[in-house]
Amino acid sequence: MGNEYRIALAGNPNTGKSTLFNALTGLRQHTGNWAGKTVSLAQGSVEYKNKTFQFIDLPGTYSLFSNSKDEEVARNYIVFEKPDVTLVVLDATSLERNFNLALQVLEMTKNVIICINLIDIAEKQGIEIKERLLTNRLGVPVIKISARNKIGFPLLLDTIDRIVTGAIECQPLVLQYPDEIEEKIRQIEPHVRAIVGDHVSARWVALRLLDGDESLLDEINRLITLKGAS
Amino acid sequence: MVQPKIIKLVDGEKGNIIKITDLQLDGVMRRRLLDLGFIKGAQVEVVRKSPLGDPIAFRVSQTTIALRKEESSKIEGELISNGE
Description:
Number of strands of chain B: 6
Order of helices and strands of chain A: EHEEHEHEHHEHHHH
Largest interface: A-B, 10 and 11 residues
Helix content of chain A: 40-55%
CATH class of the largest domain in chain A: Alpha Beta
Radius of gyration of chain B: 12 Å
Shape of chain B: globular
CATH architecture of chain B: Roll
CATH superfamily of chain B: Ferrous iron transport protein A (FeoA)
Oligomer: heterodimer
Radius of gyration of chain A: 18 Å
Low-confidence stretches of chain B: none
Distance between the termini of chain A: 25 Å
Number of strands of chain A: 6
Strand content of chain B: 35-45%
CATH class of chain B: Mainly Beta
CATH topology of the largest domain in chain A: Rossmann fold
Strand content of chain A: 15-25%
Number of domains of chain B: 1
Structural class of chain B: alpha+beta
C-alpha cells in the first residue's frame, strides 16, 4: 500500500501530545504529569480518506539540541527518519515558552503543522490566538485544538491530508541570523550539501556545525557508514 | 533618573522580580537555560529559597524552575520589583 504516511508528534512536556495521540488513535498510551514520561516511541494509526496516517509520539522536550537522550531521539526522528508531516503541539496558555521548540522544528524540516492545544483553557483565561496571522508569519498551517475535548480534529486531519497529497505546500519561515553568522552559513552550506544532499536541510546542519554540535556529526557519520556498508 | 539596580539571580530575595540582562555562561548549559526561558529581557520572579539558599526556585515564562548557585550566580538582571 503506497498510501501510508508517518506523522510525528513533537512538543514540550505537558502540552497534551500523548492526549492528542490517544484521542486520534484510540490507543491507551499512558500519560502522566512528570518529566520524561514518554520514553520510547509509541505508534498508532488512523484511517482517513483511504489513507493510513501512522502517528508517532515523540518524547516531550523543551528543545531539540540534544542536551539529553530524549532530545536526541526526537531530533533524530524528525531529521533522519523524515516523517511525512511533523505536528508540533503547543500549549496555548504558554506560547512564549513553547515557540522555542516550534521554531527549531521549522528550521529542521519543511512539512510542519503547528497545533495549538488547550485552546479551551486559554479562552477561559482570556487568551485570544490569531491563528491566521501566525499561519502567515510562520508559513505553515497553524490549527487550534483541544485534544481533551476533541475540538479541531476534522480540520487537523484534513490539513494533514492536504499536505501529504501536495494540495498545500509549506514554506516555513527562514530565521535570519546576524550578518557574521549568515556569512559563515553561506561558506559552509555548499560543502554540507555535497555530503548530505537534499536528505537533510543543509542550512540547518551548517547552523548546528557552527554551534559545535558534535552529537549531530557523530550521527551523520554513523548513517553514512551504514549506507556505505549496505 | 535612578540607575537600575543590577543583581545576580543568586542574590535575589523571595518576591523579587528581575529582568535578565546578561548570561555569563557558555556551551550546553547556556543553551539549556535559554531553552528553559532564561533569556535576555525575560522577567524572572524569585519564588522560594532553600533553607541553605541553594537551590533557588524561579518563576520564568509561567513555569517554576530551580537553579543551583553555580548557574544562578552567572545570570544578571535589573531588579524591577522587590515584591512589596
